[in-house]
Amino acid sequence: MIGKIVGAIAGSQVARHVRGVDGTGGALLGVAATAVLRRMGPVGLIATAVGGYALKKYADRRKAAQTGTVSAAANARPTQTQA
Q1: What is the mean pLDDT of the chain?
Q2: 49-81: string of b/e by CB count within 10 Å (b at 16+)?
Q3: Does residue 80 sit within a domain?
Q4: Hey, how many other C-beta atoms are within 10 angstroms of the C-beta on 46?
Q5: How many structural domains comprise the chain?
Q6: Which range of residues forms the domain containing residue 51?
Q7: How far does CA 24 lie from the centroid of its chain?
Q8: DSSP-derived 3-state class of residue 82
Q9: What is the pLDDT of residues 18-38, one digit of tens each?
Q10: Does residue 83 lie in a domain region?
Q11: pLDDT at 71 > cutoff 60
Q12: pLDDT tens for residues 3-21?
């Protein structure tokens, strides 16, 4: 019961950042996600966490490529001294 409530709260919070999903839909997805993860077991939980991390990194790189932003380390140039 508590897991469903926590999943619903987490889902509604995630829905704020996802276009096309409202708070109620996010809550329902959160409840469904907790039920699915419970059935998948520890291996499924780890696989889901790794997949989510990889998806986030992919989305960040894609967003950076679209906006043309490059990390600060790539823009760093060695300073030139005058002789």
Answers
A1: 77
A2: eeeeeeeeeeeeeeeeeeeeeeeeeeeeeeeee
A3: no
A4: 11
A5: 1
A6: 2-67
A7: 19
A8: coil
A9: 777 777 787 887 888 778 877
A10: no
A11: no
A12: 777 777 777 777 777 777 7
Residue by residue, DSSP assigns 14-81 as HHTTSTT--HHHHHHHHHHHHHHHHHHHHHHHHHHHHHHHHHHHHHHHHHHHHHT---HHHH--PPPP
Tell me the two tokens of residue 27: 């809550």
Which pairs with CB-CB distance under 8 Å and at least 24 residues apart come from 45-52?
Answer: none
For residue 47, tell me if it sits in a domain. yes
How sure is the predictor about 74, in pLDDT bands with cuts at 50, 70 and 90?
A: low
**What mean pLDDT is predicted for residues 67-71?**
66
List the structure tokens of 49.
């966490």
Take residue 4 and report the two structure tokens written for it: 């469903």
Six-digit token string for 7:
């999943």
- Residue 77 maps to a domain: no
User: How far is it, in rounded angstroms, from Cα 49 to Cα 55?
Assistant: 10
CA distance 41 to 12: 24
